[in-house]
Amino acid sequence: MSSSLAGKKTDAKTVEGRNISIDATMGSVKVNSAKVVSADVAADNGVIHVIDTVVIPKG
Description:
Layout: E1 9-13, E2 19-23, E3 30-31, E4 34-43, E5 46-51
Antiparallel strand pairs: 1-2, 2-3, 3-4, 4-5
């Protein structure tokens, strides 16, 4: 859940094996340069976090 990220910076692997950066240190959460606009949406197989742009993992 997003509450476990509060005040932290970390990386996560995508399904294809590349890394994305997650930054929750400034009062909001960013995934690379995308801002999370709706967090912790329950789904049948996990949790969804809605972002404001398409994320294209780097190298």
